[in-house]
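Provenance

Sequences were taken from public entries as deposited. Structures were produced by running a predictor on each sequence independently, with no templates supplied. The record for Ribonucleoside-diphosphate reductase subunit beta from Demequina activiva is shown for reference.
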Amino acid sequence: MAILGTGIQDGLLLKPITYPWAYDLYNQAVANTWFPNEIQLGEDLADFKKMTEEEKHAVTFLMSYFNPNELLVNKALAFGVYPYINAPECHLYLAKQMWEEANHCMSFEYVLETFPIDRDAAYESHVSVPSMAAKEEFEVNFIRRMTEETLDISTTEGKKDFVRNLVAYNVILEGIWFYSGFMVALSFRQRNLLRNFGSLMDWVIRDESLHLQFGINLILTVLEENEDLQDPDFADEIRQMILDAVEMEERYNRDLLPKGILGLNADYVNQYVRYLADRRLEELGFDPHYNVSNPAKWMATANDTLQLVNFFEATNTSYEVNAQATKR
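Predicted structure for Ribonucleoside-diphosphate reductase subunit beta:
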């Protein structure tokens, strides 16, 4: 059974497992299950009230971005990934991932409910701030290809659109843009602020690290099983998507931290973004582009998810993940 397909009656029997990495990631995701109210934010509320306006802006800006984009990821999975896959073990994982995205959305709602943040203003930012809206439009364009236009997964172009959508959501949105925000969110804990909020973010990151592994594994499996996608021009297109995404994130971070906050400014965060992009490029088999060091060594455990693989290696097997070993 190939991993791509739209047969309703295909993939109704779980075993024997065809893609062990997907089954392992599902079991790890189930083991990681958590709920936001398990963390009390009372101490953090006291921290928030005494923070500077620039610091409060950064937290609000992050909530403005994370909250709707967790639900946007779910649309990408529901419309752009789930319908085009045969393997039941992948469906199991995707179902759990979609629940996790909903749980993350509720986690950020919990923060908005706890801190004195103007919810309407926070919600408005994702369409009124040009750098934030541009990122969202970039992602929405890929969903449109999967929903408003007919996608024939049996054609080369249809399969390319499937991969483009995965790169846009799993690699760029979850693997670079989200991680950039995670670093800013966790930077407060480095100064002994918002420690419980930091724990909440740790749990989100633990989920997202598995989402990223699943997405990259899926991309590599599709490429391995479809030789017509092993095209240098297509590889260049994918690489350029990632580089374009870095430029968009750099503009966004200048709006996130217009004046900087103690120990953190846009240049620092953007070096981290470039470092992340190089890791994602390498995980897809490309050479690094920026060759910068990680300015946030304390985030190192969250950065590197997979062994190096080749984006167009037809017989690649190194992407299989031992999920138990990746528990953060």
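The radius of gyration is 19 Å.
The chain has eleven helices and no strands.
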